[in-house]
Amino acid sequence: MRFADRISRAATAAFTLAFIMTLTMARPAQAQTESVLYTFCSLTNCDDGFLPMSNMIMDAQGNMYGTTIDGGVHASGTVFKLDSGGTLTVLYSFCSVAKQHMCTDGVHPFSGLVRDSAGSLYGTTADGGHYNAGTVFKLSSDGTLTTLHSFHNNGTDAYTPVAGLLIDSSGNLYGTSYYGGKYGLGTVYRVTPAGKESIMHSFGATSTDGANPANVVPVMDRLGNLYGTTEFGGSVLRQGTVFEITAGGKESVLYTFGATATDAEFPYAGLAIDAEGNLYGTTGGIGPGAVFRVTHSGTETVIHSFQNTGTGGSSPYAPLVRDAAGNLYGVTFGGGLYGFGTVFKINASGVETILHAFANDGADGVGPYGGLLLDSAGNLYGTTEAGGNLGCNLYGCGTVFKITP
To answer: In this structure, is residue 53 part of a structural domain?
Structure first.
């Protein structure tokens, strides 16, 4: 089963129980800071896309850019632009280049985008390409898509990249793959502006190494070192790691999860980094999840533990964003007042506040999977995998939302 199908089926199963519960619940009146900016599948045949599972980025004019894993003219996913007035433009529909029953331009972009100074967008697709193992692509401002690299399940290359990219000042792109590499347990890779790919690290080289980085975009410190997480692997109970790759290419495990009975476990998303080099992330690939901090020396602290009961949310699959005051913001895919996920804030003292509980009330979103975008005014923007328009399935086709301070 393709990774894309595995995620979608798991999401459907999670929504089923929550949807049934919601049918028996009245939504109480409450002060709302959330608004739906766009509902997908608003165009005929869902040509605008559906199932957005990524974070978005914003340009200087307030336009936002993101992806959907399905829909579009060829029903294989899209790259979209949403302007400040709420008008959505599809910049590219995947599977536009099909050769011998294979979509050489890629299929199913799970991940978010990065943008260079010329306005070109870069991202990944989890499937498709010349070897049907995913791609790294460039979309120029004139709408021209270039496949910079087609991954290959050949025993050494990365494949199935479900995470997005980091771009450095020289235009080099860095990413992770859940599978592939020398040991089949995932990689960290680099692609130059000219499209030359190299594997920086293959996970699974030792019994204590990490394995399978999931929704993980590497973060880079001021010295050029890269940091991320793996969902599995490590020296304790193989419950995941935080890793470092130096600018010289040496990988080391900073922390292995599961050290105690109350420790966080199974990190699914990437990390946020502060000026001192402290790393912040979430766990929740398995279980209700937690928010943690790891210092550069490898000391871990669990800042907040989610629960499967109550209104606090569970299963944070997305990375965190951090403001200048040290507050952390994130989303949970499930839980909350209605069972369809939350947007949360954790202050510098570790106190959690639920900013919004998604309701699936015919307009609101369901199941936020991608991370948040924080603008200079403190507004938060994100996507939900489902909710809104029910034109594509029982749970809706996905939304773009905004939460004001």
So the answer is: no
